[in-house]
Amino acid sequence: MQKGPIKNPEEMKKKILVSAAKNFAKKGYAGTSLKDIALTAKVSKGGLYHHFSNKEDLFFVVCTENINTTMKKTMDFFEKRQNLQMCEEDTLLEDLEEYYDSVVVGTKDLERLWIEGMMESDHNPKLRKLLLGIEKETGKWGLETLKQIRDTTNLLKNYSDSELYDIMNGFGSLYRGTLVGRIMGKDTKELRRSWIQTVYAIYKSKK
């Protein structure tokens, strides 16, 4: 366990976050203590408290980093496809398949963290408020993306902004449902096929 002055604060913070993610995914939010995280990270509790004042704040940062990682994967994917090539009709199905494999499906730890966040926020008002704030920000990005798709491609034609907002929320529900199915051990090929076909049908729909 680390002793003495902190020589590399950023490296210590990274070790704490990796340890926290593993512990939260394995033991759940309620079953994880700051002592567990410090022991796994091989740092002192004082070193941990230097960066995080309580378990809620630490859990929030872990969730935020995982969300940011998913968002970066999404944006990188779009950039590889020259922004909105992914949403052209002739390549849509193939690109959705690749998107599912490279972005939607994460590691087991990441998926369990999502589930833990949703479960804990049900009876933790502070955490619920924090996670809703993250969802609001990601929702803004998602809505702007759908509006751009509607306005620059032949997909999602004639939907109003408010209807696209509902579709964006539906995508979020589909994603969370896919995570729950994977955690429950449902057939992964079936989940993959259902996600791809559902999103494909929505993109192709026109009013």
What does it look like?
The chain has 207 residues and is mainly α. It folds into 2 domains: 1-53, Arc Repressor Mutant, subunit A (Orthogonal Bundle), CATH 1.10.10.60; 54-204. The protein has 9 helices and no strands. It has helices at 9-27, 34-41, 45-51, 55-80, 92-104, 108-121, 125-152, 161-184, 188-204. Helix 6 crosses helix 7 (125-152). The longest helix has 28 residues, at 125-152. The radius of gyration is 20 Å and the shape is elongated. The N and C termini lie far apart (62 Å). Residues 1-6 have low confidence and may be disordered.
The shape is elongated
Strand content: under 5%
Poorly predicted runs are 1-6
Kindly state the percentage of residues in helix: over 70%
- The arrangement of helices and strands along the chain is HHHHHHHHH
Task: State the separation between the terminal residues, measured CA to CA.
Answer: 62 Å
Q: Give the rounded overall mean pLDDT.
A: 84
Strand tally: 0
> Helix segment count?
9
